[in-house]
Amino acid sequence: MKTKLIDWPTFIGALFLLLAVTIPLVLFPEAGKKFVGDANSFLTGNFGVLYMVMGLSVFAFLVYVAFSKNGQIKLGDEGEKPEFNTFSWAAMLFAAGIGSSILYWGTIEWAFYYQGPPFGLTPESKEAIRWASAYGMFHWGPIAWAIYTLPALPIAYFYYVRKKPVLKISEACRPVLGDRVDGLLGTVIDVLFMFGLLGGAGTTLALGTPMIAQGVTDLTGLPANLGLKAGIMLLCTIIFAISAYSGLKRGIKILSDINLWLALFILAFMFIFGPTRFISETTVNGIGIMADNFFKMATWLEPFGNLNQFNETDFPESWTIFYWAWWLVYAPFVGLFVARISRGRTIRQMVLGTMIYGTIGCILFFGIMGNFGLYLQLTGSFDVVGFMDANGTPATIIEIINQLPLAKLMVLLFTILAIIFLATTFDSSSYILASVVQKNVEGEPLRWNRLFWAFSLCLMPLVLMFLGGLDTLQTASIVGGFPLLFIMFLLAWSFIKASNRDIRASDDYESPTIHIKRWKKRPKKRKRSALEALEDVKQKE
Ligand code: NM2
Q: Where are the transmembrane segments (predicted)?
């Protein structure tokens, strides 16, 4: 076993932090729950505004970068073609950044908005219905994808332009923090990132497992108890452990391909055999509502809520702020991944591609799956809300799928899709976790290291699931991800600082490393004077 390659302070630091949070939760579940819950209300309540400002600023920053000189920089050598064609690129991007949660929330998120609408609207009113079919798209829309894209900027820049492979978030802050990233500060940044990712992935697991269990129950009649859930978690771990073991290219690629085609099939089936016209109209309409109210939604906090003049709903804290925090803990990880697959593209292509294709992908899921459920509710053919109150969310999701023609086959495919989605997210997360704790990664991180993180990703939530503290871990991850707010700022600054310096330098001489499309100044053709023209003519004669 090669251990020299491991960056021990980061490895031990992350493990220590994880145990330091999990062990007290195991020993004192009630007190632990209360503590974490309080910390969460404190942060999202008092600093919710920071999350909203972060979301909007990151979005504005990326639009700026895309259309600035910096956006024209090519990630690679002059004349180099993109390594992956745009379709595979978008598909891989989506598979890495999106997991089984989209099947969960895509199908059911509207029902929560329908019952607890934003802006103090009356539950289940006409207005609530309109917003219910649009808000999910917003929470999985351009701002969310902008949060994902930002870390990719410095990482891709150092990787392909300065040709310094960076697999650590701390390393990407070097232009701003200087050599301090080699010391304690760097380790702290990486450990926080790892902790956030472990927690964010815990949230994914916590949502995905009961839904998959419910699918299995529906198909086999086995009770959806803890044993079944634990079995499912282990199955997913084994799938991703095998694919992790066989290496990035084969494992992740095969799984993402199956994933993509299966997802497209289910969506197409639902669209064609479901209420096609209703789905098309609500989706287009929802995009319109989102576009029209983009800034309203991106800034809506309830400043007057606790002044007793308005009814406080906690909608911003429970939804928008929670979502931004959740996307945030995944962001450095997705950034590393996006950077890796973007060789040969310009920064602008990478930025706009992530934001546009990512959003389109999520709109497809929310538009088709969500509005299918909404249709069932509004036509009265299946009382989703009533069923949910009586049987809980996971059972309702599976019951919605059961309303399709060929119901059992569709539930089977849906369940398989959820398992693969979960496995691919874990596959790529364990790959990144292992890379971050290595001093250098030539080709692939060490296998034992990958397996170690693959199992830590699963074991911790498993233990907590048995003891009933899984939602606490979820909340803890959001709390743990708080410092990432500031790290995002560092990442943006690093990118601008480094790329501006290189652009300035390339103004003076032909820089060998930086390739700027179109923008590079060409020597101006001087207009010839009439006299010179005359000289020319004379010479030719
Ligand atoms: N996000 C996209 O569970 C998953 O789908 C992974 C979740 C951050 C809400 C990502």
A: 7-28, 48-67, 87-106, 143-162, 183-206, 226-248, 260-280, 321-339, 351-376, 409-430, 451-470, 476-496
Q: What pLDDT, on a 0 to 100 scale, did the predictor assign at position 518? A: 43
Question: Rounded to an integer, what distance in angstroms lies between the CA atom of residue 256 and that of residue 148?
Answer: 19
Distance CA 127, CA 136 (A): 15
pTM recorded for the entire structure: 0.88
In order of 383, 401, 518, 533, the CA distances from 269 in angstroms are 22, 11, 44, 70
Calculate how far, in angstroms, residue 99's C-alpha sits from the geometric centre of ligand 1.
5
Ligand 1 centroid distance, CA of 200 (Å)? 8
Nearest CA to 373 among 359, 385, 362? Answer: 385
Nearest atom (ligand 1) to Cα of 425: 6
Distance between CA atoms of residues 384 and 373, nearest Å? 7
Identify the helix (H) or strand (E) that includes residue 207: helix 184-220
Task: Decide: 98 in ligand 1 pocket, CB within 6 A.
Answer: yes
Q: Which of 102, 198, 365 to mutate to test the pocket of ligand 1 (most atoms within 8 A of CB)?
A: 102
Q: pLDDT tens, 177-199?
A: 988 888 899 989 888 888 888 77
Is the CATH code 1.20.1740 the one for domain 2-540?
yes
SS3 letters for 38-55? HHHHHHHHHHHHHHHHHH
**Radius of gyration for the alpha carbons in the chain, expressed in angstroms and rounded:** 25
Distance 140 CA to ligand 1 centre (A): 9
The response to whether residue 341 sits with its C-beta less than 6 Å from ligand 1 reads no
Helices (H) and strands (E) in the chain, counts: 25, 0
Nearest atom, ligand 1, residue 203 CA: 3
- Indicate whether residue 211 lines ligand 1 (CB < 6 A): no
Query: Which atom of ligand 1 approaches the CA of 323 most closely?
Result: 9
Encode pLDDT of 496-532 as tens digits: 999 998 888 776 545 445 665 544 444 455 556 666 6
Q: What is the pLDDT of residue 521?
A: 47
Q: Which residues of the chain have pLDDT under 50?
A: 509, 511-512, 518-523
Q: Given the CA of residue 326, which atom of ligand 1 is nearest to it?
A: 8
Find out whether the beta carbon of 365 lies less than 6 Å from any atom of ligand 1. no
Domain parsing of the chain, residue ranges: 2-540
Q: Name the token pair of 1.
A: 């076993």
Q: Is the CB of 327 under 6 A from ligand 1?
A: yes
Q: Does the CA dihedral 408-271-279-417 come out positive or negative?
A: positive
Which residues, at least 6 apart from 454, have a Cβ–Cβ distance to it below 8 Å?
237, 240, 241, 244, 426, 427, 430
